Amino acid sequence: MFGKEVIVTEVALRDGSHAIAHSYTVDQVVRIAKALDDAKMPYIEVSHGDGLGGSSLQYGLSTTNEFELIEAAVNTCNHSKIAVLLLPGIGTVKELKTAAKIGAKMARIATHVTEADVSKQHITMSKELGLETVGFLMMSHMAPTEKLVEQAKLMESYGADVVYMVDSAGAFLPHEVKERIAALRGSLDIEVGFHAHNNLSLAMANTLVAIEEGATRIDGSVRCLGAGAGNTQTEVLIGVLERLGIKTGIDFYKMMDLAEEIVAPILQTPQEITKGSLILGYAGVYSSFLLHANRAAKKWNVDARDILIELGKQKVVGGQEDMIQEVACMLANKKLSVF
Amino acid sequence: MFGKEVIVTEVALRDGSHAIAHSYTVDQVVRIAKALDDAKMPYIEVSHGDGLGGSSLQYGLSTTNEFELIEAAVNTCNHSKIAVLLLPGIGTVKELKTAAKIGAKMARIATHVTEADVSKQHITMSKELGLETVGFLMMSHMAPTEKLVEQAKLMESYGADVVYMVDSAGAFLPHEVKERIAALRGSLDIEVGFHAHNNLSLAMANTLVAIEEGATRIDGSVRCLGAGAGNTQTEVLIGVLERLGIKTGIDFYKMMDLAEEIVAPILQTPQEITKGSLILGYAGVYSSFLLHANRAAKKWNVDARDILIELGKQKVVGGQEDMIQEVACMLANKKLSVF
Fold it and tell me: What are the residue boundaries of the Pyruvate carboxyltransferase domain, all occurrences included (chains A, B) (predicted)?
């Protein structure tokens, strides 16, 4: 039923950067990376929350240059390999080269689930740089299974060593994960990974289903330190996998200790499932839509949740923020026509 | 695959009482009950965390008499029925009568999973009082499936209208829930319920599996306001069930609003999965063991987690706290013999 081994990537030092307004310091990164290394975490991802080059007014300025953080993590770890995330368009080949030069060993090239073609240059370059290369299909719930498989196959054809299905909005239900991971496993010759978010309190459920269907690469964030409601909570995952007899090579006790003693004190707000993260997962939309929807809701006197759900139905993607006003206006008119 | 309807009981005003040191005030109960009633919650459980009569030095003193809280909830609700919990031995028939007199409509009679026989008198009395009566089998993971079914059948024979499988320690894995709920459904003529805890981040996963196998009564706690890492988060559950096309009759938006505006501000500490709640779920032991294990660990210079895991293996139950010292001593001797 389950495979016997899973390789975990810890994303708190990348995805978690969203949750603390990209404020990681070298000291924090060194302490967390050292503890993770000691617990024998295979991979630790370190980058701006939106990937290399993400530090900007639009995506949030990093307090510390990400290359300083990456270098600090590389120099700290004896066992763990350092991974970086790159979204073509935000990051460039230049940043990828720098990351490789300072010792990153894995690059995860991320695109929207329907835009794998823009990853070709970066996957090729990453392989040329000698990096283990992961194709990272974000907002995977927005594409039907066949489309997802087609896009994953593109990344495989570019040379990716692994393809991840990424539930960026925390929108997947377990049966949807099951169907998609099975389809990916049936169509690819490379390893399949899964990255969950906990907006619907299903990160662990979806992760177990993915593993059951053959995913062998899994992302987790210690103490749920990731965007939205956080990811699959790494230290809990290790415990659950131990109970299931699935090996990760990671020390459960050390993970618990570092979660409690090193990571928890860094969290600025607890990683609970709030009204905001819940509605984002339910609607299946980008977290950046929440602020815009709240503003539009005020202007048009409609419920922001109705806007987000409608945006989800229309499969609106990042960059289409003008649609938010349009949807709010449409809902306001609909409301008037009831009277 | 899934049933089309599920009846939810909100337990934040009972199980959640553990999380706030039994400090509920009449004002808080009225505000929460009013909002839940308005959202069309079918049942709201109001009692001391350890059930009627639980207010004591041993289990924690309630700030406000629970009957005042029950009466306030009864008088507040037009739609929601008020449920009470009773553990024979902690509560008595006298408290049950008082609860019925002041307007409670459902009694949940709770015993350890292997001790259903002690519920006979109370289930009989509850039925005589005209209350809808639920048998509540706690720490269900500690019994094999056949034993669980046998005990549930006892409660059915006493006249229970519903039997719940209760995952008091948050220890169940999804495949374990699946097997047990299917067995209960195959053996009972009455409805089956499920009460989860989130210690292993599996409350939602286990709840969905239980529903898939035919459980029709489900407990949730708003904003995870329950013991340990909390229960299945009610407002999230409503959203997930809506996505699955399962009806609850509960207003999703109103649940989100009351979670954010009324319940969240009451929480004294956020309902995260901490080192303590994680190890309790992993070991599958009573939460009251944690403090004792920490003390014994210090005395014998061993890891409290090793003690808890060993207690779980030995299936030690409440009232056997002397076993904790014994196990700690055994582990200390084992440690010495290594050198």
Answer: 6-256
